[in-house]
Amino acid sequence: MAIQQKLSLMIPGPTPVPEKVLQALSKHPIGHRSKEFQELVESTTRNLQWLHQTQNDVLTITGSGTAAMEAGIVNTLSKGDKVICGENGKFGERWVKVAQEFGLEVIKIDSEWGTPLNPEEFKKILDEDKQKEIKGVILTHSETSTGVINDLKTISSYIREHKTALSIIDCVTSLGACNVPVDEWQLDIVASGSQKGYMIPPGLSFITMSKKAWEATESSNLPKFYLNLKSYKKSLLSNSNPYTPAVNLVFALDEALKMMREEGLENIFLRHNRHKLAMSNAIKALDLELFADEKYLSPSVTAVKTGELDAEEFRKTIKNKFDILLAGGQDHLKGNIFRVGHLGYVNDRDIITVISAISNTLLVMGKISAQKAGEALVVASNYLKTN
Amino acid sequence: MAIQQKLSLMIPGPTPVPEKVLQALSKHPIGHRSKEFQELVESTTRNLQWLHQTQNDVLTITGSGTAAMEAGIVNTLSKGDKVICGENGKFGERWVKVAQEFGLEVIKIDSEWGTPLNPEEFKKILDEDKQKEIKGVILTHSETSTGVINDLKTISSYIREHKTALSIIDCVTSLGACNVPVDEWQLDIVASGSQKGYMIPPGLSFITMSKKAWEATESSNLPKFYLNLKSYKKSLLSNSNPYTPAVNLVFALDEALKMMREEGLENIFLRHNRHKLAMSNAIKALDLELFADEKYLSPSVTAVKTGELDAEEFRKTIKNKFDILLAGGQDHLKGNIFRVGHLGYVNDRDIITVISAISNTLLVMGKISAQKAGEALVVASNYLKTN
After folding, report:
1. Burial level of B186, CB count in 10 A (0-12/13-18/19+)?
2. Does residue A271 share a domain with residue A248?
3. Within an 8 Å CB–CB cutoff, is residue B36 touching chain A?
């Protein structure tokens, strides 16, 4: 029987939170205009730059990742601007909606859910835009809804060749899970959220702005107030915030970023990579199918087709039996896939555990043999022990 | 010598947080699409309606009070709409800026900082608007920057007589501190923030929407996505959120609202009222001057003129000697006033303590006699013991 209080979060956010971070979260708040809080803003900002591998500004917003993406769009673009939106999942779809809501002219580049965006389609449209009418390229790096990672490195190189268009990138489930070198790839705007690789609860989001992105804010005419990034930049000069920030989440952020620095970027990326490989290969060993193109698997979430099994029932069984929360499919994928999050504060034990729980459930249902279940564990362990 | 970790927050937000609430905050997050979280949304929404004394929808936004006020404005109004903005402090000023940013035509009704808005000026302009061109009246109930409470009851009665204009009210430091009966006063939109009367850390804000306000959303043409309240309303039908909410702050909210229900609205208002009276009368007994008109004192913050004393130095002394954080003056008031917050989780002891700290500091500076210091305590105690 399950003890619901001992829940293990294996969804792509909120992700598990270290005890140290939970303790930081529960400290009594301090004044957000105090010297002590300024010191926190200074230290978290410096560590955020480290995490983003950038010298650009990194701003912290109280709000979800969607708020940060909207901020990126409304601060740098103007009504009627032409933008390319990459769309191969629910989040790609969302950025199209944001762009349209603010009166941008959207050129969609799409790809079936589960498959990656084709960088060459970006190149073609950007190359043909001799008038430099395209002002931005909006896309999602790791598509949380499908478990696909898009080839941001190549696409961003094409955006740079265009010279005018800004890159506005949703790195919500890639940042802190795999390499996103903002300066090296010259990414203009990168948005992310606290409840993902950051290992803290939801409520904060982050946005980097390149020099070129700041220049674009000067001509942007879309209305904004709470999300006006110029106010955030101005406040940051004195390590402050334009509006009252979620002080306790900043305590948590400070602690989590320190833990990340201790582990080191390279180790964090390696850990996520081996979890991705262990997870995806175990899934195949269990005769289940991956939803995403295997050459483009997200480092942070594995989407699994359940075929004739109802994915929602399957998730429910795993939750009731083992207190492990898996994510379901979104929109038309509901019931057809489940998603395993392996993002943030996840260790090898968590991976072996979730694979065992899936195997056990299939075993009890008579879908696989004990032999198969054992093989899946061996496969997973092989990937885990390689590091 | 002060121990900075034992800080007492006597500022108008963030306010002190009960230990129970801090403990709720530090629970491990759960999935925001889970049944368990839906139950929390259902229970907090019901208790928020109780706190607002309304049957209207109350929506929870991850963001500051400014985000909630912006949401009220951008969801119900359209470009070029005429609005009245009441302005007698920093927050009143801010709502003018939001309205202008979104292309509204602002009719300002102002009053010197420290004095209340004159309801008759609202009546006059609303009465003269025979064409019903005024679509909204935006104002701040308790002006946190000055310690003035505006006569919302009378002003809102004039707005109702106009019939077309919506009331869009910043109740950030009045809700949960004094009576704001949303249904009885027929307030259309009321915004508030978690780090105030709610007794939880910053990061959540709240907004009520009347039927008339929802009707106005149908014709509103201002662009919005993260703050599009229709998405929040739609999600609320299944006790959910359109974007990932600050799950842990919702844990805290649930606990704090239960504590508020236990104390009861009437008792909460009485407590704030006696703290206001104890504070303001002790200040006068100490030969200091109140910044706000005494007939319009905010229930949650007392602003004190320091005359020849530098208010910032005074605050610093109180902080260093007693670990009590007071708020300074904002903008042109910086150095001229300090503000004592008595909002949320504040008891009689906190009030006596802050008065003693202020008295002691003045005594040491040679500004008052021991007799005066004693008298101030007696005055305060008299107000406190009346309940």
Report:
1. middle
2. no
3. yes
Check if B366 contacts A (Cβ < 8 Å). no
Contact status, residue B15 vs residue B341, Cβ threshold 8 Å: yes
Measured between beta carbons, the chain A residues lying within 8 angstroms of B2 are none
Say yes or no: A218 contacts chain B, CB-CB below 8 A.
Answer: no
Tokens of A53: 């591998």
Count of the separate structural domains present in chain A: 2
Residue of B92, B83, B93, B77 lying closest to B229 (CA atoms): B77
* Residue B2, pLDDT score: 55
Residue ending a domain, choose from B262, B284, B313:
B262
CB contact under 8 A, B203 and A62: yes
Q: Does A195 touch chain B (CB under 8 A)?
A: yes
Residue in chain B closest to A319 (alpha carbons) equals B34
Per-run averaged pLDDT (10 residues), chain B, 387 residues: 76 97 97 96 98 98 98 98 98 98 98 98 98 98 98 98 98 98 98 97 98 98 98 97 98 98 97 97 97 98 97 97 96 97 97 97 96 96 78
- In 3D, which of B6, B141, B145, B126 has the Cα closest to residue B86? B141
Question: Identity (one letter) of the amino acid at A274?
Answer: R
Q: Is the pLDDT of residue A380 over 90?
A: yes
CA–CA dist A104, B46 (Å, integer): 39
Choose the mutation target among A4, A10, A73, A248 for the interface with B, i.e. most B CBs under 10 Å. Answer: A248
- Locate the chain B residue with the closest alpha carbon to A36: B4
Strand order across the beta sheet in which B82-87 lies? B57-62, B204-209, B189-193, B166-170, B134-140, B82-87, B105-110
Q: Which CATH number goes with the domain that contains A343? A: 3.90.1150.10
Q: Which of B199, B229, B262 is the last residue of a domain?
A: B262
Dump pLDDT digits (tens) for A154-172. 999 999 999 999 999 999 9
Task: Copy the structure tokens of residue A94.
Answer: 């969302």
Residue B153 host element (H or E): helix B152-162
Are B282 and B360 in contact by the 8 Å Cβ rule? The answer is no
Query: With a CB-CB cutoff of 8 Å, which residues 118-177 of chain A face chain B?
Result: none
Judged by CB atoms closer than 8 Å, whether chains meet at A14 and B244 is answered as yes
Note whether B193 and B281 are same-domain residues: no
For residues A288 and A139, membership in a common domain is answered with no
The chain A residue lying nearest B196, using CA atoms, is A244
Q: Are residues B362 and B285 in the same domain?
A: yes
Contact A62 B64 (CB under 8 A): yes
Element (H, E) at B374: helix B370-385
Residue B233 to residue A88: CA distance in whole angstroms: 27
A197 part of contact set with chain B, CB < 8 Å: no
A7 chain-B contacts, CB cut-off 8 A: 28, 30
3-class SS letters over A240-258: CCCCCCCHHHHHHHHHHHH
Report whether B192 contacts B51 (CB < 8 A): no
Token output for A308:
């004739």
Domain that residue A166 falls in: 19-262
DSSP B339-372: EEE--SS--HHHHHHHHHHHHHHHHHTTSS-HHH
Does the complex come out with an ipTM higher than 0.85? yes
Question: Are A226 and B28 a contacting pair at CB < 8 A?
Answer: no
Output the pLDDT for position B4.
Answer: 59
Contact assignment for B13 to A193 by CB distance below 8 Å:
no
Find the length of chain A: 387
Quick one: B243 and B121 in the same domain?
Answer: yes
Among B66, B220, B248, which would you mutate to test the A interface (most chain A Cβ atoms within 10 Å of its Cβ)? B248
Report the CATH number that the domain containing residue A190 is assigned in CATH. 3.40.640.10
* Co-location of A48 and A166 in the same domain: yes
Q: Give me the total of CB pairs closer than 8 Å, taking one residue from chain A and one from chain B.
A: 174
pLDDT for the residue B387: 47
Model confidence over A173-195: pLDDT tens digits?
A: 999 999 999 999 999 999 999 99
